[in-house]
Recover the amino acids of this structure.
């Protein structure tokens, strides 16, 4: 299982990387953490003729808090850095809660947030979490740069809105509203495996305890992360009682079209969706109530 | 496409200068270019962990890195653990508790435990099993590996 | 004679090397000028081969040679039948074995079409893509029952159908007693495919020395001596011209005892090119090119009296052989015999058909068919217990053979071709001990009802089995006292982690009174010892261990005789201790063993006729039949009713393998066996589509259990020695893996027994399970729903 040959470039600045991407476009693959790319190359399922190694660009790895309380994370931030970051724990508790579910420590030592997001595996945790947090992604190219919301970025199975000459360089997370609670949960066959189903919830309450904002996203139940719109409609301005949350979780299970594969049937995925949705919505709500 | 590049790496304190094809996996480089065959290859897709080494002090899967990526960096492999005739305390603990049978996965387990124990000097059994779940063993059923780690950390108390 | 080491948890002699990463595995071997081989394998399971064009591949820089079936000439014969079928009346067996490279048609995915030899494995794999193969896909058959249906695609055209073998064995008459039964339980059981997935893939390095006309081969084999003999025969060489070394092996578990096409190809190519050649299997290849095990379908019935006594068992089953059947009938024979378990079963009818399918060949893997027998028997007993309102432990106890029943001849032919005779056993105490350790009574009477009332689905399982081990034909050992005082032991069984370097040293150290760390064991090198068969069927400690014992005993005799002469004392007055032989009570009047060895090999003087120089002896041990070990496994599980995830809260093993040489090593074998059992039962399954394409050929999708999936195991031992060998030992290597399926099924049924299934009764008659499958079984309305 040896990889096929490729031309190798290791730019040391973002500008250099963008020049290479402009030149090679579709023929190039970006080597970030490599934890998803290299296995596919070893299996010879992916055979890029050009590899652009962005691990030597120092500007791409950072975690900074913004003045408004939000977070800016460089695309080459390793999972492990995010996992251990006090800024992430404070400003993006949903992300903090999710990180330990991503594979195992040696994978997290190399894997990057940007790489996982750009790879858009429907079974990956980060796309669903980014969607739940309404993350904004910065895409740079020689033609300029743009910011794109997560909901517009994930467009299909392993497909994103990133053009071949664009590099994902930064992730921006807005500050959480007051009285916001988040929760994540997944069910996997073994610790660290891709989830059979995963769910992320963000619930914000107003001063009376009614739901001001609610978002539920799912992984492994569609071609990409799934945003359960029904949840927002069911919870908006409601008191999030157990009955309301259960109804929302049932709506989530109804509204998806989950795949069947060797690990789980569609029916089982639907069932897990209902179970996990109820769980994360309940815990997010409890946390929202408990927060200041 | 068959261009070669010079690289300079430090492994177990020794500096090596070699010329490599970009696609040469770090696992193959360590084993066959540097003749450090203690690091083993079990799957070449990053799941079994037999190829685990330390790169700048962090545990990584060497089968998921290209040798060229290690240029200018420091690595540690299992051959760097013992001090002459003396086994590293973790190695000694493995021996005491029969934490290895065929020994093929063992270097990978040793390497993943080193940084873990440095960061977690008093882990619970659950925490130990969680980090061990990063790697696969087909012989031991893991119980004696857990025992080795517990023995080591208890000995430090 | 003091037993300083026998029975003690001695640390392993081989560990420092392994821990330092200094132990030699096959892929560590490097020879000057070595080339690398890659194999072009079929992507189709069933196809006609119309042509192979390797022209472009040959022209790729770095490629040294390409071989197709044509290039092999006479070498490309179907391989030998490695294990003949047993002498059973009416047996049907059609030998169909693989050629090194496929000719005319492909019968399984992964079958070899051509090999590339290049300067590196990287280039060799590049060249594989250059080779153009004209394959016409044929309809493939993946399912055993479909393979036997009329008009099924024919896998071997010269046969009338896809039946590979058919065997019937009988004891007493089931038909006669059936009428008298108070209870008849009939069920179908399905046990699906798995693979050993040793961490080290297979590999071979071959080096032909043209000047000395000598072939040296490193091979990840469990059977270096038969490999050597096979290579010598194939290439027309004397056995002494061939050396096969099985160095440290990264796990064997059975499939590495098979003789594979690559084991012929790599040496042959080395001899053609006159350069060393290395082939290392990669993980993806391993899923196709290394043998599998486990797929069987049973239709079984048990007849009992109203007080739960077994009158008889009737079992008809199918065994999936894959595309060929080079390894005979070991698996299904094991099933037939192991089904009988620790029970007194006066009437038994057992029939199997071996079926060819377009899947990878099936050969023994840890348990080797015993799992299926235990699954069927234990499940039938569980269902019988439910129907009769009997406790699970009680129904087993009632049917156990008692210590007075031994030796017990079951009359069914076992894999060693002799009727299965249980040598010794004492089953009831093991059952009682396991029940006690897991707190069976308290659990079912107090804890379980309380937890069920709280809405928690907890269950308990307890199952028992008997395992045939330690079969012949024989193994040998040579023990030598060196002039340094070190003792060398050479034997033919290879080692894949079972601690042979230590276990054999313990036996020898005790007899010769030396420190166990001063006994140096060499195994797996045909130049050092070349008589024997290999490591399989839980026989290493029994057969080779006893050979070491016999040889050490012979050396001890020599020591006493010579020392008696030199010290001028009677042999009875001599003691062997701390590497010295001395007069009892007068330690200063003695000789160091090293010095004695030197004196036994004089450079001058006369050696008496009929004596041998040195302190060395070679002995062989061949048991008249296999020894039978037994055990009981018990488990408490909790099933999360929302997710169907299963948490193992306690796992208990009580095991009886006779006398125990090294309890540390024995426990390790049990732990490893249970872990593989848990894998086979709850995580691992080879999934095929209807064209026999394997859908999960990677560790991402074939799930090996990790440290968070395998529980802490509590073990205890009972020792009922075997009368069949001087050490009183029985085999233990496979035991842990054998009853796990039956255990899971029982415990999970127990946990979910109260679940409202809308009138359905949860009866688990299949392996493996998974959360998904448990969901389907408990939500029948969901099956077939979108």
């Amino acid at each position: 299982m040896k990889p096929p040959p490729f031309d190798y470039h290791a730019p040391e600045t973002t500008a250099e990387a963008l020049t290479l991407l402009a030149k090679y476009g579709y023929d190039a693959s970006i080597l970030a953490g490599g934890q998803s790319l290299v296995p596919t190359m070893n299996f010879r399922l992916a055979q890029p003729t050009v590899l652009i190694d962005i691990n030597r660009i120092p500007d791409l790895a950072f975690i900074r808090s913004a003045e408004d309380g939000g977070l800016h994370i460089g695309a080459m931030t390793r999972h492990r850095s995010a996992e251990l970051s006090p800024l992430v724990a404070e400003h993006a508790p949903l992300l903090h809660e999710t990180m330990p579910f991503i594979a195992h420590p040696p994978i997290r030592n190399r894997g990057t947030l940007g790489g996982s997001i750009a790879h858009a595996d429907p079974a990956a945790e980060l796309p669903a979490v980014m969607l739940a947090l309404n993350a904004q992604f910065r895409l740079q190219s020689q033609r300029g740069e743009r910011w794109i919301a997560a909901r517009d970025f994930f467009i299909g199975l392993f497909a994103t809105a990133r053009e071949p000459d664009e590099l994902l360089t930064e992730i921006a997370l807005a500050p959480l509203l007051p009285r916001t609670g988040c929760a994540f949960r997944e069910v996997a066959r073994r610790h660290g495996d891709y989830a059979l189903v995963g769910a992320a919830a963000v619930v914000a309450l107003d001063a009376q305890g009614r739901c001001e904002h609610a978002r539920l996203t799912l992984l492994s139940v569609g071609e990409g992360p799934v945003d359960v719109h029904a949840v927002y409609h069911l919870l908006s301005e409601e008191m999030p009682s157990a009955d309301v949350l259960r109804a929302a979780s049932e709506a989530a299970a109804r509204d998806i079209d989950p795949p069947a594969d060797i690990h789980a049937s569609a029916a089982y995925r639907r069932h897990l969706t209902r179970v996990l949705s109820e769980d994360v919505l309940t815990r997010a709500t409890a946390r929202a109530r408990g927060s200041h | 496409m068959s261009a070669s590049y010079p690289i300079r790496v430090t492994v177990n304190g020794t500096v090596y200068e070699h010329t490599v094809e970009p696609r040469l996996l770090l696992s193959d480089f360590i084993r066959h270019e540097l003749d450090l065959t203690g690091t083993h290859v079990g799957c070449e897709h990053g799941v079994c962990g037999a190829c685990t080494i330390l790169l700048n002090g962090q545990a990584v899967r060497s089968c998921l890195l290209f040798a060229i990526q290690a240029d200018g960096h420091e690595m540690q492999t299992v051959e760097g653990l013992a001090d002459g005739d003396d086994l590293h305390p973790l190695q000694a603990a493995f021996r005491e508790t029969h934490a290895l049978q065929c020994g093929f996965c063992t270097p990978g387990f040793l390497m993943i435990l080193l940084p873990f124990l440095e960061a977690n000097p008093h882990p619970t059994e659950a925490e130990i099993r969680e980090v061990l779940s990063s790697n696969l063993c087909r012989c031991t059923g893991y119980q004696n590996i857990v025992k080795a780690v517990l023995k080591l950390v208890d000995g430090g108390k | 004679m003091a037993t300083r080491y026998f029975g003690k948890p001695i640390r392993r002699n081989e560990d420092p090397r392994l821990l330092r990463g200094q132990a030699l595995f096959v892929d560590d071997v490097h020879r000057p000028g070595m080339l690398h081989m890659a194999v072009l394998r079929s992507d189709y399971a069933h196809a006609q081969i119309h042509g192979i064009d390797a022209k472009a591949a040959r022209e790729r820089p770095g490629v040294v040679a390409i071989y197709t079936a044509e290039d092999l000439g006479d070498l490309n014969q179907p391989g030998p039948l490695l294990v003949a079928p047993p002498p059973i009346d009416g047996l049907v067996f059609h030998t169909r074995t693989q050629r090194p490279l496929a000719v005319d048609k492909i019968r399984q995915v992964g079958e070899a079409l051509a090999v590339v030899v290049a300067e590196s494995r990287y280039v060799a794999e590049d060249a594989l893509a250059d080779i153009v193969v004209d394959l016409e896909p044929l309809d493939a058959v993946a399912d055993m029952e479909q393979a036997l249906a009329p008009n099924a695609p024919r896998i071997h055209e010269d046969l009338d159908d896809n039946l590979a073998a058919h065997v019937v064995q009988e004891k007493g008459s089931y038909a006669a007693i059936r009428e008298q039964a108070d209870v008849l339980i009939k069920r179908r059981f399905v046990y699906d495919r798995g693979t050993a997935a040793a961490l080290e893939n297979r590999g071979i390095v071959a080096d032909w020395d043209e000047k000395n006309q000598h072939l040296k081969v490193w091979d990840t084999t469990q059977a270096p001596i038969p490999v050597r003999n096979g290579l010598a025969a194939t290439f027309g060489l004397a056995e002494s011209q061939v050396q096969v070394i099985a160095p440290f092996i990264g796990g064997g578990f059975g499939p590495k005892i098979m003789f594979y096409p690559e084991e012929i190809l790599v040496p042959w190519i080395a001899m053609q090119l006159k350069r060393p050649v290395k082939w290392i299997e990669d993980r993806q290849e391993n899923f196709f090119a290394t043998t599998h095990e486990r797929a069987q379908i049973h239709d079984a019935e048990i007849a009992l009296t109203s007080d739960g006594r077994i009158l008889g068992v009737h079992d008809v089953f199918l065994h999936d052989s894959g595309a060929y059947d080079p390894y005979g009938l070991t698996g299904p024979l094991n099933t037939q015999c192991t089904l009988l378990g620790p029970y007194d079963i006066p009437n038994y009818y057992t029939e199997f058909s071996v079926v060819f399918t377009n899947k990878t060949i099936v050969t023994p893997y840890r348990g080797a068919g015993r799992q299926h027998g235990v699954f069927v028997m234990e499940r039938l007993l569980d269902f019988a217990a439910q129907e009769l309102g009997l406790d699970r432990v009680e129904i087993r106890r009632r049917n156990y053979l008692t210590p007075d029943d031994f030796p017990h001849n079951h009359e069914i032919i076992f894999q060693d071709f002799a009727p299965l005779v249980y040598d010794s056993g004492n089953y009831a105490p093991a059952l009682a001990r396991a029940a006690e350790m897991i707190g069976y009574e308290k659990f079912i009477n107090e804890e379980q009802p309380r937890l069920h009332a709280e809405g928690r689905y907890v269950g308990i399982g307890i199952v028992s089995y008997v395992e045939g081990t330690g079969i012949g034909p024989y193994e040998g050992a040579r023990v030598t006292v060196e002039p340094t005082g070190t003792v060398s032991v050479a034997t033919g069984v290879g080692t894949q982690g079972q601690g042979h370097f230590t276990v054999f040293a313990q036996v020898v150290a005790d007899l010769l009174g030396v420190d166990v760390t001063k006994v140096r064991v060499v195994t797996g090198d045909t130049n050092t010892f070349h008589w024997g068969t290999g490591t399989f069927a839980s026989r290493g400690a029994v057969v080779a261990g006893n050979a070491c014992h016999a040889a050490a005993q012979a050396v001890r005799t020599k020591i006493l005789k010579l020392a008696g002469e030199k010290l001028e004392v009677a042999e009875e007055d001599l003691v062997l201790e701390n590497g010295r032989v001395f007069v009892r009570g007068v330690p200063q009047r003695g000789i160091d063993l090293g010095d004695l060895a030197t004196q036994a090999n004089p450079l001058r003087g006369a050696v008496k006729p009929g004596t041998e120089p040195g302190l060395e002896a070679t002995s062989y041990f061949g048991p008249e039949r296999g020894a039978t070990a037994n055990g009981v496994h018990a488990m408490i599980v909790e099933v999360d009713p929302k997710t169907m995830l299963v948490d193992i809260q306690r796992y208990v093993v009580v095991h009886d393998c006779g006398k125990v040489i090294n309890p540390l090593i024995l426990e390790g074998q049990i732990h490893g066996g249970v872990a593989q059992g848990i894998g086979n039962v709850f995580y691992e399954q080879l999934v095929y589509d209807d064209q026999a394409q394997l859908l999960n050929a990677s560790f991402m999708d074939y799930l090996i259990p990790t440290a968070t999936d395998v529980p802490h195991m509590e073990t205890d031992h009972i020792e009922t020695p075997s009368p069949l060998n001087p050490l009183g030992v029985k085999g233990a290597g496979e035991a842990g893996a054998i009853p796990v399926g039956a255990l899971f099924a029982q415990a999970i049924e127990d946990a979910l027994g109260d679940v409202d299934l809308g009138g359905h009764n949860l009866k688990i008659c299949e392996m493996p399970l998974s959360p998904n499958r448990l969901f389907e079984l408990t939500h029948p309305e969901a099956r077939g729903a979108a």
Observations:
- Chain A touches chain B through 30 residues (CB under 8 Å).
